[in-house]
Amino acid sequence: MKANKYISIYKDIAQHIEWEKWKAEETLPSENDLSVQYDTSRETVRKALNMLAQNGYIQKIKGKGSVILNREKMQFPVSGLVSFKELAQTLGKETETTVHKFGLILPPDLIQKQLQALPDEDVWEVIRSRKIDGEHVILDKDYFYRKHVPHLTKEICEDSIYEYIEGELGLTISYAQKEIVAEPCTDEDRDYLDLYGYDHMVVVKNYVFLEDTTLFQYTESRHRLDKFRFVDFARRGK
Q: What are the residue boundaries of the HTH gntR-type domain, all occurrences included (predicted)?
């Protein structure tokens, strides 16, 4: 039984979190305090905390301790291709978009590669943060071919680019290829988001195509990892 004590500690703390004895965003007692409370070694407590982190109950933050994560995360569909404006209408939360960068650029090497663009081909760069319930938690970095989207304004970017592209330009946005990765926070993330010590982001990379299979947009949607879980529906084929 002694060898499995860390499991019983894990279950006890997890139950306290689920029953909201300790609430989201609060910090658990220190390893020393927990070892006294459970009459065990710090190593055993550390194993229990690692298990809690692996199962999404806590996030260990250097200099802050073990922070309890929000188990009621906002859900973002992996397979869907929706604008933030459309998504915000389903969240039931107060949202706001801030445009930090907007304009035409000659694409740097990375964007050339992602968009399969030529070095002298104009590309719109739009960098926006998304504020949900008072916190800036998403950074969207969008790149559009100018040849497909000849005109864009800051006001359009603050509202909905997709609504403009489909409604005003008459283009049909058809499908996207997506890649989801975890990456360390960048200086841009730190400048524009409320990170509260989190050092990694969940990044959804989108390659978006028009109805005629033309790639016209590359997007990096960078999400603070404690706030979101990405959901999908899958059916087994026969």
A: 3-71
Please give the distance of CA 27 from its chain centroid, rounded to a whole number. Answer: 22
pLDDT tier at 231, thresholds 50, 70, 90:
low
The residue among 17, 51, 68 that closes a domain is 68
CATH assignment of the domain containing 146: 3.40.1410.10
Q: Quick one: 63 and 27 in the same domain? A: yes
Q: Are 144 and 87 members of one domain?
A: yes
212 token code pair: 């005629």
Q: Nearest 5°: phi and psi at 210?
A: -80, 175
94 and 117 housed in the same domain: yes
What would the pLDDT profile of 99-137 be if each residue is shown by its tens digit? 999 999 999 999 999 998 889 999 999 999 999 888 999
Residues 6+ apart with CB under 8 A from 138: 84, 129, 130, 132, 193, 221, 222, 223, 224
Specify the pTM: 0.67
Q: Number of C-alpha atoms within 13 angstroms, CB side, residue 101?
A: 14
Find all residues with CB under 8 Å of 94, minimum gap 6, and list them.
132, 133, 134
Number of independent structural domains in the chain: 2
Contact 143, 125 (CB under 8 A): yes
